[in-house]
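Q: Structure tokens for this one, please.
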Amino acid sequence: CFTPAAGGGKNMAVAAGEESERAPLRVLLVEDDPDHAELVKRGLEECRASVELVHVEDGEAALAYLQRRDAPDSPERPHLILLDLRLPDGDGTALAPQLKEVQPDGEVVLLTGFATLESAVAAVRAGACAYLVKPCATQELLVTVAQALRQVRLPAGKRDLSRRAQMAEKLAAV
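A: Here is the predicted structure, written as tokens:
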């Protein structure tokens, strides 16, 4: 994972899985607000030289994109899906499980400009690994992305146990 370096160091931390700096971070951003999409892209690029960000504006386009890359070994499968809660064609919490079904090795982070306790609980139940309130600070975005990428890199068995523990912690905090 990556986080901004403090005090003049290089702007890249080595991944939990010792991923090479040259390996691109593949992100699918499902966001109907082009201004927010641009902020997210700039925030990710500030910290990592190689970001492959695909931006789609609704759930239908997100599912279509993932289904075109459905082969498990496809080099284009996103590591991370940043998903808006309110989309023109539906609700992000309803879409998240569908996206996870098509891309089970990736993680979903829900984004919202309309945070409520109910939507946070719904995000956890939908399988999101995180819930961010828009507009989020670049540092908050980067820390969340780093945590999500650690989850992506966990071996399958550990990933399931980790996800269950995270859900229990999040629900206990609510």
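A few notes: The helical segments are 34-47, 59-68, 92-102, 117-125, 138-153, 156-173. DSSP finds six helices and seven strands in the chain.
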